[in-house]
Amino acid sequence: MQRSDFPEGFLFGTATSAYQIEGHKFGGAGPTHWDSFSATPGNVVRAENGMRACDHYHRYEEDLDLVAAAGFDTYRFSTSWARVMPDGVGQVNQDGLDFYDRLTDAMLERDLKPAATLYHWELPSTLNDLGGWQNPNIANWFGDFTDVIMGRIGDRMFSVAPINEPWCVGWLSHFEGAHAPGLRDIRATGRAMHHVLCAHGTAVQRMRALGMKNLGAVCNFEYSNAIDNTSENLTAAARYDAIYNRFFMGGIFQKQYPDLVLEGLEPYLPKGWQNDFALIGTPVDWCGINYYTRSNIEIKEGAWPNLQAVEGPLEKTQMGWEIYPDGLYEFIMRTHREYTLGLPIYVTENGMSNADVVVDGEVNDTARTAYIEAHLEAAKRAISDGAPLIGYYIWSLMDNYEWALGYEKRFGLVHVDFDSLKRTPKNSYKILQSWLAD
Ligand code: FCB
After folding, report:
1. Does the annotation mark 232 as catalytic?
2. What pLDDT was estimated at residue 367?
3. For residue 220, which atom of ligand 1 is closest to its CA?
4. pTM of the entire structure?
5. Which is the catalytic residue, given 48, 298, 349, 402?
6. What's the domain count of the chain?
7. Quick one: which of 311, 305, 313, 327 has its CA closest to 236?
8. 365 in helix, strand or coil?
9. How far is the CA of 137 from the centre of ligand 1 (A)?
10. 298 is catalytic
11. pLDDT in tens, 196-208
């Protein structure tokens, strides 16, 4: 594998998010729904939170040195709403704005293109108290936050996406209850899934009004594999695919929701949802694909959506996620052919967790290198088959707070010792460095 295997100008990057690395207790940030979700027993492994995380808030220069030294062209980071506006609306925390200003300049000094995500999952608690993503006002609250943060750093961004992974914000957090705010309620889900898209569209419009360019949408995808070819399992897999992979893409790129989702969710969508597609479908300049794995789906008796994921036969990562690079190829091609129709596409997240340990200063994470190589091969195949894929970001720069799974699941190219906070580049980092040097 080498850089020259990819078209001229293809961008390689690595990604992180604010709450997972910064250390939320530093710098005057307000409370978020991840602080309270994680403090509630049973939600997060060992009730761990992002209060200190990797202390990136103080160590960002050292961390960006690592990004640059690997040979990456671009760095995908996120801005914490509660760091910038501790109550979500109103008062601005100047220290928070100053931090993102310094971070931006530190990227530019290292020749790294700043790729921002406005929201990567930690919602200011005051807004959560008002119903969070269930409240239709969230689109405008988010728009106001967009104005404040991009009013400060928007002039120097390479690219911006408003929301990381609407499926996680909507379904995972309000239907499955696996992420903050930990709800399991279909009405809350219908509202959150629609409002997150209204917030996306509002933020794009606000950034256009600021004169910003290169604005995109980042969705996550999981390949939906029916456990067999019986018609009921094929239908269950198609329904899973629609909920996970087609609802948000449909809203943004086709101004419609798939029937296989509406059949169960329509009664719970907010009144007048059909009138919001002009906003939701506000044109974007590119689409980001986050991809990790596939699920094996079968029918399950009971209420809609009548399905469940079961364990599959493929080799798995530390997360228990099956390794399935063909899925990445499929989603790049589908995105291009059915949704984005020629817009540039990035892989905005791809990577794996591994039970990495430091032995004599080395981390021998061969499995990660193999994972990345196999997925880059799939990306290359999509490019040869005509997909306008123009960049690829690895999740993640360093081991970090893996949400409900705490600090145990290590996704980094760089190992972090969560006692000393020492950073140790893993072997995958070094191999990547050699690929990117070519
Ligand atoms: C994605 C998230 C990211 C990280 C990876 C493993 O869904 O965007 O924050 O948790 O999964």
Report:
1. no
2. 98
3. 7
4. 0.98
5. 349
6. 1
7. 305
8. coil
9. 26
10. no
11. 999 999 999 999 9
